[in-house]
Every structure is written in structure tokens, then in C-alpha cells.
UniProtKB/TrEMBL annotation:
It comes from the Eukaryota. It comes from Massariosphaeria phaeospora. This is Peptidyl-prolyl cis-trans isomerase. Residues 117-137 are annotated as: Disordered. The lineage of its organism: Eukaryota, Fungi, Dikarya, Ascomycota, Pezizomycotina. Residues 128-137 have a biased composition (Polar residues).
Length: 186
């Protein structure tokens, strides 16, 4: 995002919260995120940018997803690590595992999902695993994130999700939030 257009200081961007469906401000380099605009923001420019790109009236805005047909529905399983954007979850108030340890966990979950797909009784579906193992609040819905369009999710997540066929499960996807397995539902 061009900070001269948005009014945000260099390096900051506007993203949308998956849980609250509200815009927030994120700096990918520092992994700092906040609900309020960062210091140094040109508030008039930001107000205009938000009205043009992030209002519910903006059918072509970055978070509107364009036409309804451009939206997809996915579920995911998230494993956070100590370097995640917010290293806490409904499961653990402070996540201390390393990214490597998170990688081992999510690879084990991926193996269980593959076993499930092959009919192995020891396997488990992504939805089953997400319900008990995901560090995202979507766990209570089996990892279901609902419908979203282009620009609604973190870029790495979105790129992977939009390349999946219905019913397909991604490999491990790394974002500022942690490590994900994504299943395309619709």
C-alpha cells in the first residue's frame, strides 16, 4: 500500500480483522498491530482513503471482495508461535513455542488429515483438529472462517486459499499470525 495515498506512516498498512471484521493497522516488518492509527498518520488522508477503500458502500473496495461470486469459504487450523503477531490464544494465554516447534505440530496435524482422507481410522479431519488444536477463535466453528473476498485476509493466507479447489487442503502456510492449514469449503 502506498502510504502517500493512505496517509499512514511508511511501512504501515490497513488490514481487516477476521474475528471482528473491522479494519486495523499493521506493520509487517515489526509485526506491530493496533486498532488506532499509528503516530505520524495524516488523519485527513486516512479518512479519505478509508471512505474510498474500506466503507461498506464501496463495492470495489479492497475488503469488499467485489462481486459476491468472487468470495470463497474456508476453514483453517492455526498454530501460533512466540514470534506470531499476537502470541496468545483461547488455548494458551502466552504462547512460548518456537516457530520450529509450531512447524512440527502443524506437520503432525497435516499427517493426521492425510490419514483421514485415505480412510485411516487414526486420521482426523481438519475440522475435528481445528476444534481442539487451533489457536484461532474460529476453533469453536471447526475452523470455519465463513466467506471472504480478495483483500480480506493476510496476503499469504489469501494467495494460498484462492488457489485451492473446493475440498482441497493446503500445505503449511506461514503468515504474521502463525502457521496455517487451509481447507477450501466453497
Amino acid at each position: 500500500m502506498d502510504s502517500t495515498i493512505s496517509g499512514l506512516p511508511e511501512g504501515w498498512e490497513v488490514r481487516r480483522s477476521n474475528t471482528k471484521n473491522l479494519p486495523y493497522y499493521f506493520h509487517p516488518e515489526t509485526k506491530d498491530s493496533r486498532w488506532e492509527p499509528p503516530a505520524g498518520t495524516d488523519s485527513e488522508r486516512l479518512k479519505q482513503y478509508m471512505a474510498e477503500h474500506h466503507s461498506s458502500k464501496s463495492a470495489s473496495g479492497a475488503f469488499s471482495g467485489g462481486a459476491a461470486g468472487n468470495k470463497i469459504r474456508c476453514a483453517h487450523l492455526l498454530v501460533k508461535h512466540k514470534d506470531s503477531r499476537r502470541p496468545a490464544s483461547w488455548r494458551e494465554s502466552k504462547i512460548t513455542r518456537t516457530k520450529e516447534e509450531a512447524g512440527q505440530l502443524i506437520n503432525n496435524y497435516h499427517d493426521l488429515i492425510k490419514k483421514h482422507e485415505q480412510g485411516d481410522p487414526e486420521g482426523r479431519s481438519l475440522s475435528e483438529l481445528a476444534t481442539t488444536e487451533s489457536d484461532c477463535s474460529s476453533a469453536r466453528k471447526g475452523g470455519d472462517l465463513g466467506f471472504f473476498g480478495q483483500g480480506d485476509m493476510q496476503k499469504e493466507f489469501e494467495d494460498a486459499a484462492f488457489h485451492l479447489e473446493k475440498g482441497e487442503i493446503s500445505g503449511v502456510v506461514s503468515t504474521a499470525s502463525g502457521l496455517h492449514l487451509i481447507e477450501r469449503l466453497d
